[in-house]
Amino acid sequence: MALCTIGWFNIHAAVYDPLNPGLTDLSTNYSKQFFFIIAALIIGFIILIIDGKFFSTFSPVFYGVTLLLLIAVLIVGRNVGGNQAWIPIGNFRLQPSEFAKFSTCLLLAHYISSSNLKMSDLKMIGICLLILLIPTALIMLQPDTGSALTFTSLIFALYREGLSGYILIIGAILIALFVLTLLFNKLLLIGILVGIAALIMILVRRSRRFIVPLLIILTGCILFIFSVNFAYQNILGAHQRNRIDVILGKINDPRGQGYNLNQSKIAIGSGGLWGKGYLQGTQTKYDFVPEQSTDFIFCTVGEEWGFAGSVVVIGLYLTLLLRIVNIAERQRSSFTRIYGYGVASIFFFHFFINIGMTIGLVPVIGIPLPFLSYGGSSLWSFTILLFILLKLDSNRMGVL
Prior knowledge:
Layout: H1 2-15, H2 29-48, H3 53-57, H4 59-76, E1 78-80, E2 83-89, E3 92-94, H5 96-114, H6 122-140, H7 145-150, H8 155-160, H9 165-183, H10 186-203, H11 211-234, H12 238-248, H13 259-270, H14 282-285, H15 297-329, H16 334-358, H17 376-394
Antiparallel strand pairs: 1-2, 2-3
Helix pairs in contact: 1-2, 1-15, 2-17, 4-5, 4-6, 5-6, 5-16, 5-17, 9-11, 10-11, 13-15, 15-16, 16-17
Protein name: Cell wall polymerase
Subcellular location: Membrane
Membrane topology: Multi-pass membrane protein
């Protein structure tokens, strides 16, 4: 409720028009968000009065319905900003990708908790990846890269259930190689890797059993390096490449490709320690930051409430995340525990990526800040995620 309230005030500041200040005028984002919040509370109440076993039993149904919606949006969806991600329903636009998050978490928890296989089993890993990849692929067809990447965060829920930590390490290495390949010459990078591998071979020459795995890893890294440029040029869109190049410093165009990020950093930095005050932000008031009530809502927090207000908001998110993890850990039901970690993973991904992109730590990929950003679909999706967990937690003395 605290985050929703803060979000509503900042949406109000981002789109405030002194000539049209009415709260009930549905032509303004802040008035719409007010009714979205009321609807979210009703949704939360309905979830709390439903039997907790309902969510476990019907998790495949939820998953199937969201897949149908993801297919439907490709056919009848409305294209906004280059993404065909919304289904128009009167004056409201439904975004199925938001609701796919909670349904995927439910099915993942349902499958893992009902299976006799261990997370080290290849069949278990394969089916879990399939559950994640189907909605991811459909969302990429829209194309909505930001929402699609959210599903990768569920790897942390799988790790909690026994997935090998080596997979996370390999993922981190591949991300590092991807960035380094874009920054440096391929041959130079390969030379460094070969040198490191040779040094390791010298150090472990008495343990020859390490040599073959090391050579396999080195070969895999070299092949990956050569594939980076092809994937970068042929899979990512031009606007996505530009956003990455801006973050890496390969493009310095504050009035063109780097405009969003540059204005975002100006807005946050200009807030100083205590901020300029409510409705006093010049970057906010004069619409210098694009999408300020949605993806860049944190800019309003930084400009009008300053460093102090930003710390309060971040503190609220960290408290929420710690509470979710605590709730997940105290469960006797493996279904609820897995679901709880899925919720924590999705919230953390949105929190880290959204704030990170506004201050230039990660590329701009366009995902909302939970409970703060404007939007009915995202608000209701996060509400459903959280309230299902609360309902399942209320039944923790039993086993689902």
